[in-house]
Amino acid sequence: MIHQCLFTKPSISSYSSCFSIPIRIPKPLNCNRHCSFDYCFHHNNGFLYSSSARISITCESANLEAAVVSKSTRGGPYTGRDPNVKKPEWLRQRAPQGERFEEVKDSLSHLKLNTVCEEAQCPNIGECWNGGGDGIATATIMLLGDTCTRGCRFCAVKTSRNPAPPDPMEPENTAKAIASWGVDYIVLTSVDRDDLPDGGSGHFAETVQAMKKLKPHIMVECLTSDFRGDLNAVATLVHSGLDVFAHNIETVKRLQRIVRDPRAGYEQSLSVLKHAKHSKEGMITKSSIMLGLGETDNEIKETMADLRAIDVDILTLGQYLQPTPLHLTVKEYVTPEKFTFWKEFGESIGFRYVASGPLVRSSYRAGELFVKTIVKESYRKTYNASH
């Protein structure tokens, strides 16, 4: 049930900022708890632009949550479709289908597992779920629910200030699903869970341990949030038995505040990746950069150099694709030839492996063979050094 709201005029202190708007909501008679209203606006030249078309109203005591569709879906200075920018042919993909695709989908649904493949509208879902050229299906499992506590302006995953608590059976269910698929490499990722004390690091660790128990030789990559910069949370996950620690820096330094939620940050992401590398000898680290958001070549080189300075091993680069008109506008469709250039440049400055292409994503099936080789080499060096 949605009650009439009385808006108060917000104060604006910066060119682009997020803030809460106090409102008055008539409460149910038995309500003595906090009711909240959260929305994000951006300010530009005297106009307020909404970053979302939905407003969440939550009444804790009545356990009610409602959404109001905003009257205006006018995009901000960085959003909206640009009719002059056409999607090139190399980005067009067929709709996913096939018997193997349906089997994986049914398996995930039965075990109540979420995937970033679906939630983030990944263009490679058909290739991965159908097994690519080797017939072995794989998916990137998204832990900790399907609702994120952050509102990055490139991401299609739904958001809420108070998502549902984690499913305690998720680590075990995930391990069972992966064991049944017969894969030997799996990627686990998650939404940001700033509402949890450890950001979800312990839940990640339990899942890794459950998988290793069922299938000791499986290689596990965890594509994580920044855990609010909590390095103890990073260490907990690193020592859970995972093989690759991945965290995406997403974009160049200048565009961080435009692209990512204000709680994320360039230096914070570098700190997380650096700590993961130093917390355990031989740990493989990985990151990803989206292109097409308005970055310059020099800024991309600077970002790649900063990642190499903290000894990140693996880098992926892919084309940013706008999921809805309310998300960030694509500034450029980078050509396949330019992606080839970035792959060669990255490997020339010391990355052990670079996956670079318009449809490459941070959890990218085509690169798993190379990653497995790197992990095995790292284990061999660590073993020889200790004996």
UniProtKB/TrEMBL annotation:
One GO cellular component, as annotated: chloroplast
Residue stretches making up the Radical SAM core domain: 131-352
Record-level GO BP terms: protein lipoylation
Family annotation (InterPro entries): Aldolase_TIM (IPR013785), Elp3/MiaA/NifB-like_rSAM (IPR006638), LIAS_N (IPR031691), Lipoyl_synth (IPR003698), Lipoyl_synth_chlpt (IPR027526), rSAM (IPR007197), rSAM_sf (IPR058240)
SMART domains named among the record's database cross-references: Elp3
Location of this chain's protein in the cell: Plastid, Chloroplast
Annotated residues for binding of [4Fe-4S] cluster 2: C148, C152, C155
Alphabetical keyword list: 4Fe-4S, Chloroplast, Iron, Iron-sulfur, Metal-binding, Plastid, S-adenosyl-L-methionine, Transferase
Catalytic activity field: [[Fe-S] cluster scaffold protein carrying a second [4Fe-4S](2+) cluster] + N(6)-octanoyl-L-lysyl-[protein] + 2 oxidized [2Fe-2S]-[ferredoxin] + 2 S-adenosyl-L-methionine + 4 H(+) = [[Fe-S] cluster scaffold protein] + N(6)-[(R)-dihydrolipoyl]-L-lysyl-[protein] + 4 Fe(3+) + 2 hydrogen sulfide + 2 5'-deoxyadenosine + 2 L-methionine + 2 reduced [2Fe-2S]-[ferredoxin]
Enzyme Commission number(s) from the entry: 2.8.1.8
Class of enzymatic activity (EC top level): transferase
Recorded superkingdom: Eukaryota
Cofactor: [4Fe-4S] cluster
Metabolic or biological pathway, per its Swiss-Prot or TrEMBL entry: Protein modification; protein lipoylation via endogenous pathway; protein N(6)-(lipoyl)lysine from octanoyl-[acyl-carrier-protein]: step 2/2
Keyword S-adenosyl-L-methionine among record annotations: yes
Molecular-function GO terms, alphabetical: 4 iron, 4 sulfur cluster binding; lipoate synthase activity; metal ion binding
Cofactor note: Binds 2 [4Fe-4S] clusters per subunit. One cluster is coordinated with 3 cysteines and an exchangeable S-adenosyl-L-methionine.
Pfam families assigned to the protein according to its UniProt record, in alphabetical order: LIAS_N (PF16881), Radical_SAM (PF04055)
Binding sites annotated in the UniProt record for [4Fe-4S] cluster 1: C117, C122, C128, S363
Family assignment from sequence similarity: Belongs to the radical SAM superfamily. Lipoyl synthase family.
Protein name: Lipoyl synthase, chloroplastic
Gene source species: Camellia sinensis var. sinensis (China tea)
